[in-house]
């Protein structure tokens, strides 16, 4: 999914990225300076990308992105809904604080 895409893209020497900042949905109140500090240092010759899958389903995100830059390019990965549900379920199982309680 999105993690694999980011992992493959950043193999290219002129692409830098960050995963899961969620600035335009969950962390917008932290401000643009906070967002920029999360991103890798680059120059005008390097493509900088961010991966936050929830941007597609968060109502305020489109306007925030547009206000930030009208040159933003979006990549949307569409998957079989059942495969996506299973993937999300497994992700939640492996990334929740209560995981240690299952042992």
Please characterize this protein's 3D structure:
Helices cover about 35% and strands about 10% of the residues. It is built from four helices and two strands; from the N terminus they run αβαβαα. It is globular.
Share of β-strand residues = 5-15%
User: Order of strands in the sheet with the most strands?
Assistant: 1-2
Number of H- or I-type helical stretches: 4
The biggest sheet, with number of strands, parallel, antiparallel or mixed sense and barrel status, is:
2 strands, parallel
The helicity comes to 25-40%
Class computed from helices, strands and strand pairing? alpha+beta
Q: Could you say which overall geometry the principal axes of the C-alpha atoms support?
A: globular
What is the count of β-strands? 2
Task: List key phrases describing it.
alpha+beta, two-stranded parallel sheet, 4 helices
Describe the structure in brief:
The protein is an alpha+beta fold and 103 residues long. Helix content is 36%, strand content 10%.
What is the strand and helix layout of this fold?
Blueprint: H1 2-9, E1 15-19, H2 32-38, E2 47-51, H3 61-68, H4 81-94
């Amino acid at each position: 999914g999105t993690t694999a895409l980011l992992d493959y893209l950043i193999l290219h020497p002129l692409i830098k990225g960050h995963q899961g900042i969620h600035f335009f949905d969950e962390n917008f109140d932290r401000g643009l300076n906070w967002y920029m500090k999360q991103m890798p240092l680059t120059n005008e010759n390097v493509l900088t990308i961010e991966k936050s899958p929830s941007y597609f389903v968060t109502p305020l995100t489109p306007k925030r992105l547009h206000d930030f830059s009208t040159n933003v390019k979006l990549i949307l990965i569409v998957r079989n809904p059942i495969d996506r549900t299973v993937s999300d379920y497994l992700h939640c199982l492996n990334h929740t604080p209560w995981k240690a309680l299952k042992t």
